[in-house]
Design a protein that fits this description.
Order of helices and strands: HHHHHHHHEHEEHEE
Helix content: 55-70%
Strand order of the largest sheet: 1-2-3-5-4
Structural class: alpha+beta
Number of strands: 5
Strand content: 5-15%
Largest sheet: 5 strands, mixed
Radius of gyration: 39 Å
Length: 373
């Protein structure tokens, strides 16, 4: 309950139970002390204190226990006067004040029976009452502890689910960012190179401009197709799946042809027995080759490149060598090489990128085929 219902209605219900229930119970206790104004004040004091239980759980618990002990020691008739105590104890434990609740309950118990035994105040207590009250307090406290533990387990499960959802969402964002980077960087780099070639040859060799424009058209078409495929993961439920094929080494020839259309002298060499690869490994290998060729086109200047794909029993290795200048991201701080390394590591593989001893640059990635996480 919230608002006035949680702060006032519950204490009001407790007050009605304590007053009316104790009046009814007093008829069966003719030998007890008559309910007077002081008794009713004590019966109402607990519920009134409960209105502050949310802000001051421990002080309210202490005051309610004091009121309850005073009522018992005064010798008034027994009845449901302990409802306030139950509510105050439960509130304190559920709010995390467990030690305070146990200590307050033990102190109130000792004061109650200590005053009646040692000082002969109030009605004397028998052994049955001593054991019964102790058992009642223990059952109450252990019951509330179980409720608290259950709530904590539910809260922990909810937090774990939220953390897992955030983790999955973060992985999805990272994957989409990598895909977008690879798709756009590769094709836009080709477009940029071909546009520069076209502008350079427009006056001197106008017949070459047609080839550049054709390459730009093809690269932009490929970029749009792959972009639709990548953004397909963001589509709403019920929408059609993207029609573009997933990136795969089966498209290696087309990738090499596009790089060649951009003016890069490149060839591909495949060793081992080509076979069907897990989708994640196949796509990662393709993207690594694509990004490595993009870096060559963008940063290496006039160069020749060789793409080597080696199929082994348990892994596949892709290697891209060029004899041009050093890529701008050769130190690994660029987004392209970092993205390639993330792809490899995510599959349990490894990637190295750096200058070759005889000049140029080399990117080598080894990806396990089986047992990739």
């Amino acid at each position: 309950m919230t608002g006035w219902r949680g702060g006032v209605l519950a204490p009001l219900v407790v007050a009605l139970i304590q007053v009316l229930g104790t009046i009814a119970a007093a008829h069966d206790q003719p030998g007890g002390r008559h309910l007077d104004a002081w008794a009713f004040a004590l019966l109402l004091a607990g519920p009134v204190l409960l209105t502050l239980r949310r802000r001051y759980p421990v002080p309210v618990l202490t005051a309610v226990l004091a009121v309850t002990v005073t009522y018992v020691v005064a010798g008034y008739p027994y009845g449901p006067f302990v409802v306030s105590t139950v509510v105050a104890l439960g509130r304190a434990v559920l709010r995390g004040h467990r030690r305070a609740a146990w200590v307050c309950a033990a102190v109130a118990y000792c004061i109650d029976f200590g005053l009646r035994w040692v000082l002969h105040v109030g009605s004397p207590a028998g052994l049955g009452e001593v054991i019964g009250v102790a058992a009642w307090l223990l059952a109450l406290l252990f019951g509330v502890e179980q409720i608290r533990a259950g709530r904590e387990r539910v809260s922990a499960a909810i937090r774990a689910r939220e953390a897992e959802s955030e983790h999955l969402a973060s992985e999805d964002r990272l994957r989409v960012a990598r895909e977008l980077h690879d798709v756009l960087a590769h094709n836009i780099s080709l477009i940029n190179v071909q546009a520069g070639v076209g502008l350079h040859l427009m006056d001197s060799q106008p017949e070459q401009v047609r080839a550049s424009l054709t390459a730009i058209k093809q690269a932009s078409k490929d970029a749009l197709g792959e972009l639709r495929s990548v953004l397909g993961v963001l589509r709403a439920d019920g929408e059609a799946a993207p029609l573009a094929p997933a990136p795969s080494l089966t498209g290696l020839d087309g990738l090499v042809a596009n790089a060649g259309a951009a003016g890069l002298a490149v060839r591909a060499e495949v060793t081992g027995r080509p076979r069907l690869l897990p989708a994640g490994v196949d796509g990662a290998a393709f993207r690594i080759v694509q990004e490595a060729l993009t870096n060559v086109v963008r940063h290496a200047g006039p160069a020749r490149a060789v793409v080597r794909v080696a199929y082994a029993e348990h892994d596949i290795t892709v290697q891209v060598d060029d004899d041009g200048g050093l890529p701008a991201a050769a130190n690994g701080s660029g987004r392209g090489i970092a993205g390639m390394r993330e792809r490899a590591v995510a599959l349990g593989g490894e990637l190295s990128a750096g200058p070759r001893p005889d000049g140029g640059f080399r990117v080598v990635a080894r990806l396990p085929i089986e047992g990739a996480p």
